[in-house]
Amino acid sequence: MKKIALKKGQILQRKGDFNSKVYQVEGGLLRSYAISDKGKEHIYMFAPEGWIMADNAPPDEPCDLFIDAIEDSIVWQKEKDLQGEHDVPKLIKRLSVLQKRVIMLMGASALERYEHFLATYPEIVQRVPQKMIASYLGVTPEALSAVRRKRSQKE
Amino acid sequence: MKKIALKKGQILQRKGDFNSKVYQVEGGLLRSYAISDKGKEHIYMFAPEGWIMADNAPPDEPCDLFIDAIEDSIVWQKEKDLQGEHDVPKLIKRLSVLQKRVIMLMGASALERYEHFLATYPEIVQRVPQKMIASYLGVTPEALSAVRRKRSQKE
DNA sequence: TTCCTTTCTTAATCTACATTAATGCACAGG
DNA sequence: CCTGTGCATTAATGTAGATTAAGAAAGGAA
After folding, report:
1. In A10, A48, A121, B78, which residue has its Cα 20 to 30 A from B32's Cα atom?
2. What CATH code is carried by the domain that includes residue B52?
3. Residue A73: pLDDT above 80?
4. Residue A153, phi-psi category: left (phi > 0), alpha (psi -120 to 50), beta (remainder)
5. At B45, is the pLDDT very low, low, confident or very high (cuts 50, 70, 90)?
C-alpha cells in the first residue's frame, strides 16, 4: 500500500498496462477513460475523494482504460490481490451498478443521461469541465450545452 | 441445486424479485431483459447451453431484469452464496466483460453493434428472431434490417 | 498586464436512426 | 383448406444529435 501525490493532468495508468492497481482516492479527482479506434475519448467514470478507481481487467490481461488526475490528487495504491480479503459483496455491488449503467445507456436520451450524471455525482458538477461531462455521457459538448439550456429554461 | 425444465416463453425471474438465483444453462436458450419506464423492452444478454445467466443484483436488493426462455430449455438453479466458494476471478472476468460493453455502447454505430453481437454470439444468430437481436443492440427492427441489407450488398 | 490557448456557447447544415404505415410471408388454430 | 396473428422488410417522413464554423469567455504563461 503506497501513497501517491499527483499533479493535475498526470497519468496514473495507461491502456495496455498489465497488473493494474486499485486506487483509493484520499483527495482530489480522478477519471478513467477509453480511446476508441477512431481516436475519440470516452470517459468511463470519475472518482472524487472517498471513491475507488480501478480498471476491471483480470491481472493477466492488459487493461482497457487510462486513468489520470483532473485535479491535484492524493491516492492510495493497492494491489489487486486475487485471493485474500477480496470483498465479494463489494464486487457484486460493482456488477450491479455496471449492469444498471448498461441498461441506462441502451435507452436513455441525452437529457436523461445528464440527469443520471447529476444523481450519480452531485458533488463534482462544478469541478469537471463541460466537455468531460459530455464525454462521460457519450454526447458532444454542443449537445450537452443544448440540454443545459433547455433545463434552465424550464426552471 | 435444482434442475428446471422450461417451455418456450416461460418466465424464470421477474423484475423486483429478491434473492435472485444463478442459472446454468444445460440446453436451450434464455434471455434477460429490462423494461424501461416507457414500456420498451431492452434485452441485456442471451445465454445458450453452457452459459451462465444471472441478474447481478445484491441479494438484499430487488433485481432489475426479467429472465425467460426463448426455446424450451433445461437449466440448473443455484443459490448465490455470498460466502463460500465464490469464484472471485470469474466475478472479475464478468466485470471486465461488462466494462467493455459499456465502452462499446458509448461509441458504436448500429453496424458496429451488430458486428459485436455476431462476434459474441456466433452460434445463436439463426435461433433468435431479428426483433430480439434489434432489442439487444438497442435499435429498431427496421434499423437492423437496413444494416443487414447493407452488409449483404458488400459481400 | 498582454497574448495565446482552451473551453463554452450559438447557429446552420447534415445524417443516422426512429416513427409510421403498407406489404408480403410464415405458421398456427379453426 | 381458409383465416388470423405476428414477424420481416421496404419506403416516407420526422427528429435528436453530430458536424462544422464562428465568436465570446476564461485561464495560463510571459
Report:
1. A121
2. 2.60.120.10
3. yes
4. alpha
5. very high
Q: Are residues B56 and B1 in the same domain?
A: yes
- Closest residue to A93, CB basis, from B34, B58, B107: B58
Domain closes at, from A32, A62, A84: A84
Domain that holds residue B43: 1-82
Of A65, A82, A95, the CB nearest to B98: A95
Which residues in B lie closer than 8 A to residue A98 (C-beta atoms)? 56, 95, 98-99, 102
What span, in angstroms and rounded, lies between the C-alpha atoms of A120 and A98? 12
CA of A110 to C1' of C11 (A): 20
Cα–Cα distance between A33 and A25 in angstroms, integer? Answer: 17
User: What is the pLDDT at residue A92?
Assistant: 86
pLDDT grade for A99, boundaries at 50, 70 and 90: very high
How close, in Å, is residue A30 to chain B by CA atoms? Answer: 18
Contact between chains at B106 and A138 (C-beta distance less than 8 A): yes
Note the pLDDT of residue A83. 53
Q: What is the pLDDT of residue B81?
A: 67
Domain identity same for A122 and A136: yes
Tally of domains within chain A: 2
